[in-house]
């Protein structure tokens, strides 16, 4: 596979700070995605079931 040449320093403080911020956002995204995949929060699920709605 062809390697892309870059001048990005993956060991720099700026890169590490950006990586840390990105990973934090990614974890938040995954958490929200998991909640929506389940059909919402526990409160929402309970409300829908009480109303006889399908999930």
TrEMBL record:
<protein>
    <recommendedName>
        <fullName>Methylcrotonoyl-CoA carboxylase</fullName>
    </recommendedName>
</protein>
């Amino acid at each position: 596979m062809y390697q892309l040449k870059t001048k990005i320093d993956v060991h720099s403080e700026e890169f590490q700070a950006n990586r840390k911020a990105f990973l934090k956002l990614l974890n938040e995204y995954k958490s929200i995605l998991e909640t929506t995949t389940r059909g919402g929060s526990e409160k929402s699920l309970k409300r829908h079931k009480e109303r006889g709605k399908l999930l």
